[in-house]
Design brief:
- By secondary structure, this protein is mainly α.
- It has two domains: 46 residues; 51 residues, Arc Repressor Mutant, subunit A, CATH 1.10.10.
- The protein has six helices and no strands.
- Helix 1 packs across helix 2, helix 4 crosses helix 6 and helix 5 packs across helix 6.
Length: 126
């Protein structure tokens, strides 16, 4: 059997785990933004199919870059929140207040965790 053969049982299992994890994550995140359970399941399946169709057969490596985990939109929303304008920010970005609270908690945690590891330190000028 060739290296990285698509019929290799271990590789097939890893692909299945990746798709299952991604689908679970998408469903949970859509639920946080008040998307219905059935709709979230359909969207997550559609996304998994799209990835398989568009990227199937490719070998990819996912870097563990904490800076990349915060999307520009997440940071824009986080920066717009002042502590006393939850409903205004939620309305502006078309989020539920509960979803916005979760986003703020998630971004705050990532910033804190990144700072503990020195990941947000500015590089020394050379």
């Amino acid at each position: 059997m060739a290296l990285n053969d698509p019929n290799d049982g271990r590789m097939a299992q890893r692909r299945h785990e990746l798709y299952a994890d991604m689908m679970d994550l998408v469903q949970r995140r859509l639920g946080e933004y008040c998307v219905g359970t059935n709709e979230a399941a359909l969207i997550s399946c559609d996304l998994a199919d799209l990835l398989a169709d568009q990227w199937g057969g490719q070998n990819l490596t996912f870097p563990k870059e904490y800076r990349r985990k915060l999307s520009h939109l997440e940071m824009e929303i986080f920066d717009a929140f002042t502590g006393d304008n939850l409903s205004e920010v939620a309305q502006k970005y078309k989020l539920g207040e509960r979803g916005l609270r979760k986003l703020i908690t998630r971004v705050t945690r990532r910033i804190r965790d990144g700072a503990q590891h020195g990941l947000f330190d500015k590089p020394d000028p050379a």
